[in-house]
Amino acid sequence: MDLVTGTTPPAPAAPPGGPHAPPAPDDPASLTVVPARHPARWAAAVAVIVLVAQFAHGLATNPVWEWGVFRDYVLSETIVQAVWVTLQLTAYATVLGFVLGTVLAFMRLSRSPVLQTVAWTYVWIFRSIPMIVQLVFWFNLSALYEELGIGIPFGPVFWSVDSSSLIGTIGAAVIGLTLHQAAYAAETVRGGVISVDHGQQEAAAALGIPRLRQIRRIVLPQAMRAILPTAGNEIIGLLKGTSVVYVMAIGELFYQVQVVYGRNGRVIPLLLVATAWYVVLTSLLSAAQYYVERHFARGTDRTPPPTPLQRARHFVSGLRTAAARSAPPLKHPGDSR
């Protein structure tokens, strides 16, 4: 009611056409939703599928691949032994390289200028020299030092041994791979450590926790989330980098493949054998890296996503449940209906 005139204002007029009239043209409800079309994306997908199909067809039909020769050698005793040597070199260089790299990383993070300089110089030198040069150098160490001994620095030697007998071919390969890997591992570990908030160490120091225990129980577990992805790449690269030791005539995978195809002339299928084994070993390392990363991610992700194996089990369980629901009920012998 209008307080001035005392009259009641008229009710608003009903929309034309009644309550069920169609919406106005500018009403969002009247607009037709059309899904976005991506012709370029579909064209690219079709082109990729065609290229993959052509490649697969070539693998199946090209006689140069000689799949029969591949089947004969892929699990042969010579190749399996070579794979074992490759795994041994990778394991030794990985463990020793990351142990030494961790020491170098904390040397660079220390407050001692001497330790910082030594660690920085080591990383600089061993990242500058190619791996094959380092391996050849260690293989010819006996030409530089005929004897290695223990004694007083710049004084008499109490015990010595011939360097050629102390460091064999495998030992020279492990030393070269380890020292090369340690330079990269040091930077990987250092990057993970400095990614941890410095307040964590300050809080631990305020609680009176010893320095070594701070590193072992507080810093490293948190740094592992940043270390593992790069460390996984380094280990996979080291696995493939062991092929460089063929210059030392060590019977690892690539060298043994070269020996075999040098005898029978089947270059392509033997290279395919080496490729298949490297793919299998790399896939296993990638799977191990996934589960290790998942383990160290528990502190930040309380409910981690299911693993591929768990997803497969859930999918199979869902199929069984759906099949059980769709199956007709069993009739008992006494049921007359």
Judging from the principal axes of the Cα atoms, what is the shape? extended
Q: Note the gap between the termini.
A: 74 Å
Helix fraction bin = 55-70%
Most strands sheet: 2 strands, antiparallel
Secondary structural class: mainly alpha
Average per-residue pLDDT, rounded, comes to 82
**What is the string of SSEs from the N terminus onward?**
HHHHHHEEHHHHHHH
Structure description:
The protein is mainly alpha-helical. It is built from 13 helices and two strands, in the order H-H-H-H-H-H-E-E-H-H-H-H-H-H-H. It has a two-stranded antiparallel sheet. It is extended.
What structural keywords apply?
337 residues; mainly alpha; two-stranded antiparallel sheet; 2 strands; 66% helix; 3% strand; extended
Describe the structure in brief:
This protein is mainly alpha-helical and 337 residues long. The protein is built from 13 helices and two strands.
How does the SSE layout of this entry go?
Elements: H1 39-61, H2 67-73, H3 77-109, H4 113-128, H5 131-139, H6 141-144, E1 147-151, E2 157-162, H7 163-166, H8 169-194, H9 198-206, H10 211-241, H11 253-264, H12 267-296, H13 308-326
Antiparallel strand pairs: 1-2
Helix pairs in contact: 2-12, 3-4, 3-8, 3-11, 4-8, 5-8, 8-10, 9-10, 10-12, 11-12
